[in-house]
Amino acid sequence: MKKILVLEDEANIRSFVVINLRRSGFEPIEAETGAQALEMLKVNPDICLALLDVMLPDIDGFEVCRRIRASGSKMGIIMLTAKSQEIDKVTGLMTGADDYVTKPFSPAELTARVDALIRRLGIDEDEKANTEIVSGPFLLNTRNRTLEKNGQRLKLTQIEYLLMKLFMENPGRAMSREDILSAVWGSEFTGELKTVDVNIRRLRIKIESDPTEPEFLTTVWGYGYKWGY
Ligand code: CA
Q1: Residue 17 Cα to ligand 1 middle (Å)
Q2: What percent of the chain has pLDDT over 70?
Q3: Looking at residue 216, what is its pLDDT?
Q4: Ligand 1 centroid from CA 62, angstroms
Q5: How far apart are CA 138 and CA 122, in angstroms?
Q6: I want to staple 34 with a disulfide (CB 3.0 to 4.6 A). Which of 21, 59, 177, 191 is the partner?
Q7: What strands lie across the sheet with 146-149, from one edge to the other?
Q8: Measured in angstroms, how far is the CA atom of residue 14 from the centroid of ligand 1?
Q9: What is the C-alpha separation between 216 and 222, in angstroms, rounded?
Q10: Distance 95 CA to ligand 1 centre (A)
Q11: Phi and psi of 79, rounded to 5°?
Q12: Domains and CATH numbers, the chain
């Protein structure tokens, strides 16, 4: 999963961004201050993109941006600016940011900008090489995030898509519910294991001919699930 740094001191905006990135299949790394952001970047050298708020309690987002570029990093950088900070956009782009999003923004706008920047920077090259996973009658396209069964498009939620991707990438492997929970919902998710069962049940209704006798997504009793095809 691609890691995205989220630097934002306002907790409610930060969690809004984090939830939406996670829903889109990214792994958000949170930071509340500029100093914390720089520390997170050191600990997670594989962060491919950073969302930087401008107004912070310590150093501002532009300074963080400047330091990221000074370190030689070519990661994608999107500044999160407030409307009254129009002028900041110019400064931001001059300090090496790739794009900016004006607050308040919708989840769709944010993910569209993130996806566009990832495409533009070629960060998803590893996925380009292998955008299709085929398993039996199923074809999963990881670029369009779509699933077909016998050539028929199946409508999936983001969670269902992530579940399918996880299973189709690990054919024949028994996955524990804990593994599934942390792979799909993120390691910080503190929900119940039942969440996995509920979503698997829904997914089976979409992908199995007879959801009560699953042929593909089988149960490993007392443990978890397996892509059995
Ligand atoms: Ca702020």
Answers
A1: 13
A2: 91
A3: 96
A4: 12
A5: 27
A6: 59
A7: 132-135, 138-141, 146-149, 152-154
A8: 10
A9: 18
A10: 18
A11: -90, 140
A12: 3-120 (3.40.50.2300), 132-227 (1.10.10.10)
Q: Quote the ligand 1 centre to 10 CA distance (angstroms).
A: 6
Distance separating the N- and C-terminal Cα atoms of the chain: 24
pTM over 0.90: no
Nearest to 183 by CA among 14, 40, 27: 27
- Give me ligand 1 centre to Cα 188, in Å: 23
72 CA distance to ligand 1 middle (Å) = 26
The Cβ of residue 133 has, within 10 Å, a number of other Cβ atoms equal to 17
The ranges of the chain with pLDDT < 50 are: 127
**Cα 123 to ligand 1 centroid, rounded to whole Å:** 27
Instruction: Quote the ligand 1 centre to 55 CA distance (angstroms).
Output: 4
- 9 Cβ contact partners less than 8 Å away, ≥ 6 residues apart: 32, 33, 53, 55, 56, 57
What spacing in Å lies between the alpha carbon of 115 and ligand 1's midpoint? 23
The C-alpha atoms of residue 74 and residue 71 are separated, in whole angstroms, by 9
Are residues 27 and 1 in contact, defined by beta-carbon separation less than 8 angstroms? yes
What is d(CA 65, CA 77) in angstroms, rounded to the nearest whole number?
A: 7
Taking the centre of ligand 1 as the mean of its atom positions, its distance from the CA of residue 54, in whole angstroms, is 6
Ligand 1 centroid vs 32 CA: distance in angstroms?
Answer: 9
What is d(CA 45, CA 177) in angstroms, rounded to the nearest whole number? 29
